[in-house]
Amino acid sequence: MYYNDQTIIFWNGKFVRAAEARIDLYSQTLHYGLGVFEGIRSYRHADGQTRIFKAVEHFERLRFSAESMNLPYAWTTAELAAATYEVLEQNNLQDAYIRPLVYAPANMKFDLNTESNIVIEAWPMQPFLGEKLLRVMTSSFQRPNPKGFKIAAKATGHYVNSILASQEAKARGFDEALLLDINDHVAEGPGANLFYEKDGKLFTPPPGNILPGITRNTVFEICDELEILLEEKLFTIDELKQADAVFFCGTAAEVIGWTSLDDTVFPMPWEKTLSKQVQDAYKRCTVGLQVKEYAEEAD
Ligand code: PMP
Question: Are strands 134-142 and 254-261 parallel, antiparallel or unpaired?
Fold first, then answer.
């Protein structure tokens, strides 16, 4: 249940009950999928305070996505971050998932809009529920052609592709899908980036056919601090199947290892991988602890 009669959302500058807000059924976003959104999380820190993880990065990406999609964007990052803290407080949320959405007004044409609407919703989410490793399937769906879409924007319509891939994988008994790009290089999951580990080094696809995730950036920062070698490169499914370990990363998924891809089981015990060190460090970052402290403790 995402909301109940008491739930408060931020809606076009006001704090209102979710149950009382309305969407225009003639919205261009509803009909054609031209909207932009974010997926953000807040975590309860050791001091008992609630903090939004990478709030600036997420609201800056929301602006970038809106501008990429020609949606008017009239808000500052500071005001949206403040509004989000207010939503969390009014709903008594600490560990939460936060969903801002910028959507178009009534417009059945393909023309530019003169204004946009914004909503910020939040609901409870426990951190690191997904401790188990994933069984992943190579999808029959490709990621969208970057010449047909602005693939680095987090646009609502792009998620038709994600949903088709994820539903296909789950219908076949897998936990999640892996999508290739239009040239058959590995791209990403329906809602997460991926890294693989081979001989003590991590690899991940470069921007171009992926949503360059904020968690992916955090993994770069963690690897830098833990002195784990990391390289961006294009690679195929065959190369990925030779990996010692693989993980998905994203705001919702956090860092989650794979047990297998199709019929291939990854050989290295997760506990022994560098990827697990990255997972632990990420967990620490989200609750305000230092990556480096983890490195020292691990010695
Ligand atoms: N790729 C896709 C397609 C996604 O939907 C997401 C989730 N936003 C990601 C990657 C990971 O992005 P982030 O780390 O910013 O959540």
Answer: parallel
User: 215-272 pLDDT, tens per residue?
Assistant: 999 999 999 999 999 999 999 999 999 999 999 999 999 999 999 999 999 999 999 9
- Closest ligand 1 atom, CA of 61? 15
Q: List the Cα angle 86/212/232 in 5-degree steps.
A: 145
pTM, full prediction: 0.96
CATH 3.20.10.10 domain span(s) along the chain: 134-298
Strands, DSSP E only, in 189-240? 193-198, 201-204, 229-232
Whether 154 is catalytic is yes
What is the number of residues in the chain?
299
Position 293 scores a pLDDT of 65
225: Cα within 13 Å, side-chain hemisphere: 18
User: Catalytic one among 109, 154, 198, 276?
Assistant: 154
213 alpha carbon – ligand 1 mean position (Å): 5
Q: Specify the CATH number of the domain 8-123.
A: 3.30.470.10
Ligand 1, atom 2, residue with closest C-alpha:
191
- Does the CB atom of residue 205 touch ligand 1 within 6 A? no
SS3 for 255?
strand
Distance CA 230, CA 204 (A): 8
| CATH classification code of 134-298 | 3.20.10.10
Assign 3-class secondary structure to 64-109: HHHHHCCCCCCCCHHHHHHHHHHHHHHCCCCCEEEEEEEECCECCC
Q: CATH 3.30.470.10 spans which residues of the chain?
A: 8-123
